[in-house]
C-alpha cells in the first residue's frame, strides 16, 4: 500500500487517490494490518482483493455507487465488492433480500445460487464498503482503524469530479454519507438496509434498480443489466 505499484489501482483511481496513500492514516492502516497478519489473524478479503471494487470499476466508469459497511466475515465470502460473494458461495441473507427486491422491481428471475456481483461492477456499479477489511468472525472489527478516511475521500472525489451518479444508500450507516454528496448533481436513493432485521421497514418496495436505470437513461447513460 505504500507504493503505487503495490496498490495496482486503475489509472483513474490512481490519479485521484495517489496522494491518500502518502497520508499518515494510510500508513497506520498498513502497520495495523501487517501486525495482524504477523499474529496469524485471518483477515478478509485476502490481500489481493482488498481494492477489488476499484479494480473492477475505474473512476471514469462509475455510474452507480452502492455503499456497504464492512466485508463479510465468514470464509470464502468477501472478495472486495460490497454485498457480493465469490462464485459457488451461497448468497448471505442481505444479498438474498437484494435479489428478492430486484425480482420484484424489474420482473426478471434471479439466480439465487450465484451471489457474485462482478457483472454489476464491470458495468459501472461501484460496490464500495466504507471499511475495506475485517477480521474473521468479528464484524466491524476494523471499522475504527482509519478506512473511513479513505472511503470518505473516495465518495468526495466522485461527488466533485463526476456528474449524474446514482448513490444507493441502504441503512443508517450509508445514509450518513449523504452529507458528502451534492443532491443537485447526483441522485441519492435511500432506504432501509436489506438485512433481515430491517428489510421490511422500507427496503422491500423501494425499487432502487428501476429508479437507477430510469435516471441513467434520462442522463444519456447506458442502463445497468442487473441479471
Question: Mind explaining what this structure looks like?
Answer:
The protein is an alpha/beta fold and 227 residues long. The protein has nine helices and six strands. The protein has helices at 4-7, 11-17, 24-38, 52-56, 93-106, 118-121, 147-161, 171-175, 208-218, and strands at residues 43-44, 64-68, 125-129, 134-135, 166-170, 187-191. A four-stranded parallel β-sheet has the order 3-2-5-6. Helix 8 links the parallel strand 5 and strand 6. The longest helix has 15 residues, at 24-38. It is globular and about 50 Å long. The relative contact order is 0.16.
Element layout with pairings:
Layout (H helix, E strand, L loop, with lengths): L3 H4 L3 H7 L6 H15 L4 E2 L7 H5 L7 E5 L24 H14 L11 H4 L3 E5 L4 E2 L11 H15 L4 E5 H5 L11 E5 L16 H11 L9
Parallel strand pairs: 2-3, 2-5, 5-6
Antiparallel strand pairs: 1-4
Amino acid at each position: 500500500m505504500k507504493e503505487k505499484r503495490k496498490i495496482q489501482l486503475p489509472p483513474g483511481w490512481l490519479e485521484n487517490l495517489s496522494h491518500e496513500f502518502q497520508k499518515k492514516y494510510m500508513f497506520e492502516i498498513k502497520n495495523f494490518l501487517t501486525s495482524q497478519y504477523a499474529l496469524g489473524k485471518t483477515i478478509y478479503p485476502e490481500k489481493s482483493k482488498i481494492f477489488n471494487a476499484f479494480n473492477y470499476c475505474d473512476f471514469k466508469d462509475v455510474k452507480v455507487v452502492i455503499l456497504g459497511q464492512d466485508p463479510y466475515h465468514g470464509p470464502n465470502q468477501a472478495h472486495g465488492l460490497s454485498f457480493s460473494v465469490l462464485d459457488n458461495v451461497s448468497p448471505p441473507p442481505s444479498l438474498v433480500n437484494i435479489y428478492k427486491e430486484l425480482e420484484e422491481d424489474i420482473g426478471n428471475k434471479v439466480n439465487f445460487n450465484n451471489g457474485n456481483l462482478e457483472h454489476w461492477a464491470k458495468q459501472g456499479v461501484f460496490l464500495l464498503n466504507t471499511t475495506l477489511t475485517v477480521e474473521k468472525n468479528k464484524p466491524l472489527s476494523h471499522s475504527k482503524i482509519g478506512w473511513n478516511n479513505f472511503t470518505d475521500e473516495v465518495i468526495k472525489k466522485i461527488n466533485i469530479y463526476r456528474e449524474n451518479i446514482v448513490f444507493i444508500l441502504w441503512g443508517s450507516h450509508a445514509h450518513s454519507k449523504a452529507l458528502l454528496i451534492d443532491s443537485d448533481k447526483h441522485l441519492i436513493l435511500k432506504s432501509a438496509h436489506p438485512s433481515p432485521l430491517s428489510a421490511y421497514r422500507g427496503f422491500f418496495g423501494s425499487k432502487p434498480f428501476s429508479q437507477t436505470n430510469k435516471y441513467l437513461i434520462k442522463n444519456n447513460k447506458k442502463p445497468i443489466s442487473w441479471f
